[in-house]
């Protein structure tokens, strides 16, 4: 039977915490770029210009149907050759996950906007608002409320997907764990600690979501799905 | 932007890619089969009224839903052998990680589907003398399955994409084989583009299928 010994892992906890910090950085940046980009893609897909609509649909479907790991490899190994720029693991990660999550966010935005009653558009038009103004002032504020649970769920997915960046040697939590495991020869303890760290990070996040959903349900705002 | 695209250098290794595709397919079939059937059982355990059944099932679901699959695969590959003394192959680690993850996610789909069936159906089943198991099998599940079809198809798509993670432990699936080609021929652009296109072509019809299923079964009981 294996003798558990967490001493070596805990002694190098600062390495893991640094990895956690790097993970959170990529996560936050990918969210910050991914959400506006997702809104843009959603509006593009719903646009009445066929070319724009088809282009946005293609981008969304392409990034939804290809594995994130393949995308990451493409952006890290292939893109730099194609446009001859230096690509760091950090830039490649943020780029990949911004675009990848934007495709999923776009579908959430589209679902949310479509879920708003047609009468709202007509009412806005009746008091003389343009399409743009009614979208910004009437439709989106209502739609965003309904989208929050789906958003949160997608963000959790994103957080879990960031572990992939360890494969291009970005020093995220997973990468630091690999380093520490080979340094201490204690893979069982290291990976168990890391799994627990991810578990609590995501648990906190999902509990906030549940709380939010509960409050929205209470305030009479139906949740999507 | 003056790159000379040379896809011939990828297709010259089509046998290598074919091995990868086969590997992906094997992972997909095993993990979806075991994952969904395990998910059905886990979903029913989650639905149980007994705390002794319900709580452990819930713990399982939360643990596997709240940790990244990559961590799970790596844990099974590097940590499990230390714990049990059994040698874990890349194949086994990938199967374990992806299947256990799929069980957890599909369990929630099954539970939601079962819960969505009205109470009266249970009562009606009881009224004509059916046991719990019979009502579940003959009355509840057939109705619930229809509603669960769209989310379950999405799960299948997720599993197909997740199979690329097996490359991290060097299991020869599509991405791993492309990596190999890229390192022989120094053609990462073409190799990874081909892989992306393969996944796109295979999964796009499946995604379209979920849209159709959602429209047909999503809301009404057609």
Automatic annotation (TrEMBL), chain A:
<dbReference type="GO" id="GO:0043190">
    <property type="term" value="C:ATP-binding cassette (ABC) transporter complex"/>
</dbReference>
<dbReference type="InterPro" id="IPR035906">
    <property type="entry name" value="MetI-like_sf"/>
</dbReference>
<keyword id="KW-0813">Transport</keyword>
<dbReference type="GO" id="GO:0006865">
    <property type="term" value="P:amino acid transport"/>
</dbReference>
<keyword id="KW-0812">Transmembrane</keyword>
<comment type="function">
    <text>Part of the ABC transporter complex GltIJKL involved in glutamate and aspartate uptake. Probably responsible for the translocation of the substrate across the membrane.</text>
</comment>
<keyword id="KW-1133">Transmembrane helix</keyword>
<dbReference type="InterPro" id="IPR010065">
    <property type="entry name" value="AA_ABC_transptr_permease_3TM"/>
</dbReference>
<feature type="transmembrane region" description="Helical">
    <location>
        <begin position="72"/>
        <end position="95"/>
    </location>
</feature>
<dbReference type="GO" id="GO:0022857">
    <property type="term" value="F:transmembrane transporter activity"/>
</dbReference>
<comment type="subunit">
    <text>The complex is composed of two ATP-binding proteins (GltL), two transmembrane proteins (GltJ and GltK) and a solute-binding protein (GltI).</text>
</comment>
<comment type="function">
    <text>Part of the binding-protein-dependent transport system for glutamine; probably responsible for the translocation of the substrate across the membrane.</text>
</comment>
<feature type="transmembrane region" description="Helical">
    <location>
        <begin position="20"/>
        <end position="43"/>
    </location>
</feature>
<comment type="similarity">
    <text>Belongs to the binding-protein-dependent transport system permease family. HisMQ subfamily.</text>
</comment>
<keyword id="KW-1003">Cell membrane</keyword>
<dbReference type="InterPro" id="IPR043429">
    <property type="entry name" value="ArtM/GltK/GlnP/TcyL/YhdX-like"/>
</dbReference>
<keyword id="KW-0029">Amino-acid transport</keyword>
<dbReference type="Pfam" id="PF00528">
    <property type="entry name" value="BPD_transp_1"/>
</dbReference>
<feature type="domain" description="ABC transmembrane type-1">
    <location>
        <begin position="20"/>
        <end position="209"/>
    </location>
</feature>
<protein>
    <recommendedName>
        <fullName>Glutamate/aspartate import permease protein GltK</fullName>
    </recommendedName>
</protein>
<feature type="transmembrane region" description="Helical">
    <location>
        <begin position="190"/>
        <end position="212"/>
    </location>
</feature>
<keyword id="KW-0472">Membrane</keyword>
Automatic annotation (TrEMBL), chain B:
<dbReference type="GO" id="GO:0022857">
    <property type="term" value="F:transmembrane transporter activity"/>
</dbReference>
<dbReference type="GO" id="GO:0006865">
    <property type="term" value="P:amino acid transport"/>
</dbReference>
<dbReference type="InterPro" id="IPR043429">
    <property type="entry name" value="ArtM/GltK/GlnP/TcyL/YhdX-like"/>
</dbReference>
<dbReference type="InterPro" id="IPR000515">
    <property type="entry name" value="MetI-like"/>
</dbReference>
<feature type="domain" description="ABC transmembrane type-1">
    <location>
        <begin position="21"/>
        <end position="210"/>
    </location>
</feature>
<dbReference type="InterPro" id="IPR035906">
    <property type="entry name" value="MetI-like_sf"/>
</dbReference>
<feature type="transmembrane region" description="Helical">
    <location>
        <begin position="20"/>
        <end position="42"/>
    </location>
</feature>
<keyword id="KW-0813">Transport</keyword>
<keyword id="KW-1003">Cell membrane</keyword>
<feature type="transmembrane region" description="Helical">
    <location>
        <begin position="191"/>
        <end position="213"/>
    </location>
</feature>
<dbReference type="Pfam" id="PF00528">
    <property type="entry name" value="BPD_transp_1"/>
</dbReference>
<keyword id="KW-1133">Transmembrane helix</keyword>
<keyword id="KW-0812">Transmembrane</keyword>
<keyword id="KW-0472">Membrane</keyword>
<dbReference type="GO" id="GO:0043190">
    <property type="term" value="C:ATP-binding cassette (ABC) transporter complex"/>
</dbReference>
<protein>
    <submittedName>
        <fullName>Glutamine transport system permease protein GlnP</fullName>
    </submittedName>
</protein>
<keyword id="KW-0029">Amino-acid transport</keyword>
<comment type="function">
    <text>Part of the binding-protein-dependent transport system for glutamine; probably responsible for the translocation of the substrate across the membrane.</text>
</comment>
<dbReference type="InterPro" id="IPR010065">
    <property type="entry name" value="AA_ABC_transptr_permease_3TM"/>
</dbReference>
<comment type="similarity">
    <text>Belongs to the binding-protein-dependent transport system permease family. HisMQ subfamily.</text>
</comment>
